[in-house]
């Protein structure tokens, strides 16, 4: 597996106020993620800290606007990228952010097999910290009822990439995913503050600990299994024992299989 999750690219056209800030930076385009937007890392040739620029049009621009709001809120509780500049037009959005130092959890797991158990423990500690944020302090709703309505809208608009489904749903249609989710309802909610896309690529590691997270556009109150399902699914690429270790360290002896399945199905539609 290639650990390089980005590639160099030319300077991209940006609004004047952002372009002026990025003179002299080297541009690298992120190759990970299915959000529909584009993420660039700006590497300074003068020794300054890296910056990240996220760009999108239309519905993706709305998502970037949402992420900006969530970044500013979540920064009260943990390390996330700081918003340097935000520009929004009717059709486009540009979000310039600081870089969180560290290496992604995915890269660390891939490069250091002997460190996998310790890293999974660190991820569990970080997720417990996130889920301990008081729900009454969070202004954002990301519950499954809300996200089901968003998923239905994406299906109806033809926005779901059916070719990107997980292997166990290879060849499925978006409607089949939708129907499979309906069979798992209703679910008894267990609301916490969730990241919403708690994947290994969105967690930054430094000195053996998760020091922060990125890609916060789905942060909000939801069932804790929203985060658990995505993280456990990511760990299948490495070792099933890591899933058991993570659940134990997080504090779950018997995971709710219906909730895990539901949230994996839901994630296919975004």
Name the descriptors.
37% helix, Aminoglycoside 3'-phosphotransferase, Chain: A, domain 2, six-stranded antiparallel β-sheet, three-stranded antiparallel β-sheet, Phosphorylase Kinase, domain 1, 270 residues, alpha+beta
Give a concise summary:
The protein is of the alpha+beta class and 270 residues long. 37% of the residues lie in helices and 21% in strands. It has 2 domains: 6-98, Phosphorylase Kinase, domain 1, CATH 3.30.200.20; 103-268, Aminoglycoside phosphotransferase (APH), C-terminal lobe (Aminoglycoside 3'-phosphotransferase, Chain: A, domain 2), CATH 3.90.1200.10.
What can you see in these coordinates?
The chain has helices spanning 16-19, 59-74, 105-111, 116-131, 144-156, 174-182, 225-235, 240-250, 257-268; strands at 6-9, 25-30, 38-44, 51-57, 83-88, 92-98, 103-104, 191-194, 203-206, 209-213, 220-223. By secondary structure, the protein is an alpha+beta fold. It has a six-stranded antiparallel sheet, covered by helices on one side. The chain has a three-stranded antiparallel sheet with strand order 7-9-10.
